[in-house]
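Title: Prediction job returns without error message
Component: structure pipeline
Severity: low
Priority: P3
Assignee: unassigned

Description:
Job completed but the reporter wants confirmation the result is attached to the right record. Sequence as submitted:
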Amino acid sequence: MQLVGLMSALLAAMAAAVCAVPNDCSRISADLTEGSPPDTPVVNLGDKLGLAVGQAEFALLNDRTDGHLLSLNSKSGLVSTRMSIYRDTLISSPGHHRGSCDRSGCVVAIMVQVSYGDSIRLCTVRLRLEERNNHAPEFKVTSPIVEVSELAELDTRVGLRLVVTDRDSPRYGVARLQLTPFDPKDTGLFDVAPLEPNEKDHRVVLLLRGKLDRETKAEHHMLLTAFDGGSPPKSASLNLTVRVRDENDHAPVWVTKNFRFNLTENAEGGQLIVKLEATDEDAGPNGRIIYLFNDPRPSREAQMFYLHPNSGELQVAHGAVLDYERTSVYRIPVVARDRGVVPKQIEQTIIIELQDYNDNVPVISVRGLPVKPGGGPHTLSIRENQPPGQTIGYVVARDDDSGNNSHVECNLGSPGEGKIRFRLQQQQRHKPQVVFKLITDDTFDWEVTPTVQETVWCHDNGVRDSPHRSSSQ
C-alpha cells in the first residue's frame, strides 16, 4: 500500500505547472572506455543542461541498480564510475542494468531526476562502452589427444575434445585457427575446419587431407594456435597429438533431420524433446551407436537435459529449473558414435528455444518529491489546500519477463476504496520498466484528512498458457 502523508509544515509550495530546465535532457549521450578505473568522470549533466553548481539537485532514479556501477554528484550532476566497467560485467548481470550488448558495442541507459526550482524532470543518459581487447583466447581441454583410423578417408572430420573461446565481445573474439606440425613431413596432412560464425565457444574440428599409415608413423604432433580479432591479435597455443589406429569403415549418419525445437520454460523433468536416431552401415560393435553430449565440460546445458545413450531420447533433466530470463536459447552439441575400437562419430548441435512463461510479477517502487523525513519508503507528502494537478512522486514498475508478459500497466484504487484522489500519468517506458507521475486529483485539508491511503495496482499482459500476473503497493 502507498501511504500519502500530508504534512504542510515540512514542504514548500509546489508550482501548478512544471517548468523546463534550460536545455533538453531527454537524450544525453557519453562515451566510456571499457575498464576505466573507479572515479573516472563520464559526463557532467550540469554542464550539458547549462546549470551552475548548486542550481539544481540531481539524483539517480534507480540508485539500487544504477548506483552499483555509477555515482552521481547531487549538486554538480557529474556522473563518475564507481567501479571498472567491463562488457563481461554487463552480460553476467542480466536484468540488473538497462543496457544492451551487440556486435556494435554496449550501451548502458540510466535515468536521472533533475530538480530545478519548481521543476522536476527525468533525463535519460546513454553511456556507450568503448570496448577493448582485454582477453586472449582460451582453450578448455578434456584431452589434447585424438585417435584416427588409418583407413580414414580424405576430408574426414576429426572432432577434438576441446573448446576455444574468448571472453571479449565478438569483435575481439576468436578470429582464426592455425595448425603447425612439428615434423615438416606432416605439412598438409591435417587442416582445421573453418570456425562457425557468431559463436562464442568454438569446437575445433580437424580435417584429414592426406592418407594415414600406422606402420609408417603411429603419432603426429602439431601446435594449434588461436588468434583473436585484435590489432595486433592476442593468441593462445596448445600441443595436439593424433594417434593412428586401425579400422572402422563407416561413420554414423543422422536419420533425424530436425535439430531445432521450442520448449516452454515451465517444462517438467522427464519431458521428451526429441528421440535422436542415426544409422551405421558397419556390423557388430562398429555399427552399434551411442548418443552423447559433445561437450568437454560439465556445462549448464548438460545439467538441464538428459540424453539416454542407447535410445537417443533427449529429455528435460529431473530437478532442472529452466528460466527464460536467464537463458532463452540452449545450444547442445551431441554426437552419434559407434562402438568400434576406434569409434567414428557424427556431430550436431541441438538448438532449444525456450518460450517465456509468465512467471514474474511486476515489481513496484515509489519515489517522493521529496520523501517525508522519518516516513516509510512508500510515504509521500503534499501541502494542504493546493489545487489539483500537483506532482508528488513517481511510480516505477518493472517486469523481467519478455514480450507481452513484460508489458506493465498500472492504475490506482481497488473495489470498495471509495473516491480516488490521485491519478497516474505515464512518463517513460523502456522495457521491462515503465515510469508514471503520481499527480493529485483533489484538494486536501489536513484538519479533515491528515492521512490518505491509496493502492497502486500493476499487471502485465500475460495471456492463455501464461495468465497475467499483478502486484500492488
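Comment from assignee: result matches the submitted record. The longest strand covers residues 105-116.
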